[in-house]
Design goal:
By secondary structure, this protein is mainly alpha-helical. It has helices at residues 5-36, 42-49, 53-81, 83-103, 107-124, 127-137, 143-185, 188-191, 215-223, 226-255, 260-287, 290-310, 315-328, 333-344, 349-378, 382-398.
Length: 412
């Protein structure tokens, strides 16, 4: 029986938006899941290749740093050409970098592929480009929810893909698992097809000047803005926490003489509970002041890490800490994206958020490297936990001056 005209109109109105969000969520899940799996290869690859653990860790830390440096460049290209082109190129680089990691016969070549190539790939096929594309394509009243869904999707990818990569290492060996991950990265190419933004319409008469701004004018305005730098340094702290826990939480668990499965379970649990945290954050971003939401998230991290630092380290306390930290893990992303859009418009959002994300990745490099350095020098992670607690307090305070104003432009 043919569909009624009303049903056809409803399908035309709803389906493209649903396809856009679903494809964006799946792309974010696949990109984050593949990226978070690389730490699983440290032990098997260093044992098989005779490399040092520090050499492997430096390659992954370099990836984080290159990701941060190249993110604004990828964002600028996405702002000019559309997110689809950048995401497809990033997916191809993902496959090339992972394949190169599998075939590298020496640590320098591995560092080139794992650090440089994958760093650029993660920028091109990463969360800032995906979030900016969705933000521009969706109505303003749905952006917070969609950003929360995208962040939740990336966390679900961490929860799902990381264990699958571990099973791949067990069943196929580390090299076979990397081959499979390279093939999986190519799935991001068809998933990127709906993420091509429409050209920005000409500003209506009387529109604010920000609507007509070029990239350089927007960047100059951002660099002169106190809100931009508050968001930058707040996201630096977020990156420090995320990388410190992602890289060193399993080692910290091992240093507490807990079973090995507890460390792996902790990382997986963080990813699972961040699905909930991201969805809640996306909803609250549409209802609360974004500034106050960020203050609450970082203050919550400070309290949680302080309690965990003082608590006895048992399987129960580690898993409970991981579950609560998962709720606060990437819940910072929806309000941060929303504040970037509100303060600087959506026309150059991938560029502006890419620069804020640079702070996140510099913090990530600091967290990964400093955690290892402190453990090597002191034989304990205690000082790093104290630094992380103080950093969370700083991040809560630094967001207080952020301007949470009405949107300055409607560009697309």
């Amino acid at each position: 029986m043919p569909a009624s005209p009303a049903d056809a109109r409803a399908a035309r109105r709803i389906s493209p938006m649903m396809v856009l969000v679903v494809c964006a969520v799946l792309t974010a899940a696949l990109a984050m899941g593949l990226r978070q799996s690389f730490g699983l290869f440290l032990a098997p690859m260093t044992n098989a290749q005779g490399w040092s653990a520090s050499g492997f860790a430096f390659a992954i830390a370099l990836q984080v740093l290159v990701n941060g440096i190249s993110q604004p460049i990828c964002g600028q290209i996405a702002d000019r050409l559309g997110g689809r082109v950048v995401l497809m190129g990033g997916a191809a680089l993902y496959a090339l970098g992972t394949l190169g990691m599998a075939l590298a016969d020496g640590l320098p070549l591995f560092t080139f592929f794992a650090g440089l190539v994958m760093g650029i790939a993660v920028s091109a096929a990463g969360m800032p480009v995906i979030m900016a594309s969705m933000t521009r394509l969706l109505p303003a009243e749905q952006r917070g929810r969609a950003t929360g869904l995208g962040t939740a999707g990336s966390s679900f990818g961490q929860f799902l893909v990381v264990p699958l990569a571990g099973l791949g290492i067990s069943g196929l060996g580390w090299q076979g698992a990397l081959f499979a991950m390279a093939a999986a990265a190519l799935l991001m190419i068809p998933l990127s097809l709906p993420l091509q933004e429409r050209p920005a319409p000409a500003p209506a008469p009387g529109a604010q000047a920000a609507a007509e701004e070029g990239a350089m004018q927007t960047l100059k305005r951002a660099f002169r803005s106190r809100s931009f730098w508050c968001l930058f340094f707040g996201f630096y702290v977020c990156g420090l926490h995320v990388s410190f826990l992602s890289v060193h939480l399993p080692g910290f668990v091992s240093s507490c003489h807990l079973p090995g499965f507890v460390g792996a379970g902790a990382i997986s649990l963080i990813g699972l509970f961040n699905v909930l945290g991201s969805l809640v954050s996306g909803e609250l971003t549409q209802k609360w002041r974004r500034r106050e939401l960020l203050v609450c998230i970082y203050a919550g991290r400070a309290v949680l890490m302080g309690v965990f630092f003082l608590a006895p380290k048992t399987t129960a306390t580690v898993l409970a800490f991981s579950a609560v930290m998962g709720i606060l893990w990437l819940s910072t992303v929806p309000p941060t994206v929303a504040l970037c859009a509100r303060n600087f418009g959506t026309r150059w959002l991938a560029t502006i958020f890419g620069l804020v994300f640079l702070g996140h990745q510099v913090g990530g490099f600091t967290g990964a490297w400093l955690g290892g350095l402190i453990f090597d020098r002191t034989g304990s992670y205690d000082l790093m936990w104290i630094i992380s607690i103080l950093a969370a307090i700083f991040a809560a305070l630094v967001h207080l001056p952020v301007r949470d104003a009405r949107p300055v432009a409607v560009a697309a």
